[in-house]
Amino acid sequence: MAEEEIVRFEHVRKAFGSQQVFVDLSLAIRHGEIITLMGGSGCGKSVLLKMILGLLSWDAGSVIVDGDDISGWNERAMLPVRRKVGMVFQNGALFDSLTVFENIAYPLRERGNNDRHKLSERVAEVLEMVGLPGIEHKMPAELSGGMRKRVSLARAVAEVPKVLLYDEPTTGLDPVNVRRINELIISLRQKLQTTSIVVTHDLPSAYMVSDRLAMIANGRIIAVDDTPRFRHNPDPIVQEFLTAMDTNIATNIATNIAPTQPLPA
Question: pTM for this one?
């Protein structure tokens, strides 16, 4: 794998029964970049993220993470890889019965860090990073949707991952919190030198945070380019998708709905 690449998909095929998701998907993701995956519902964006974590297998091809081809690896073999990868889930995926402190400390404890003082220091540090200092004692039910997303992000970066995966990070948030999350994605990349892979239907957010955009359609990557060039990609599928998203945004504005709401899943 080229030195500048951290994740590579090579001719990946994946089907769920008779439903073919990927027929020949290839994509190289560079160290330190923010790349956003786009495409219609059901095209396989979240499937791709789960493959990086080894949560889903594939039928053919290779997935290479930080130099290791993880094809066919079992749960035990995947543990070191998963320590390099943090994920921010669409719904935050916090444990409702645990405090903010315990939620963030949970993955650290799972990896053998049980020093209460060091845990407290690290939890405080990552909460400061996401703009939520001093909320360790709160329960998830006491938090707004935007705060839950930021706590989820704090948990994901607690171990300083090499790769951060974001699955619809702005879904369900108001415009102020959408901008806050987008700014955090950018600032954490700068602070941690982390590669970020974002899945979103939120076109303005994609334009704001991304170094490159990639589009999945018909079971493969049909376009990948830096953001300005991607917006002018002549592929008719790309232009149809972008036009539809622009129309959706304009409709939302006209009906006083936050323009960051995604298309229905």
Answer: 0.86
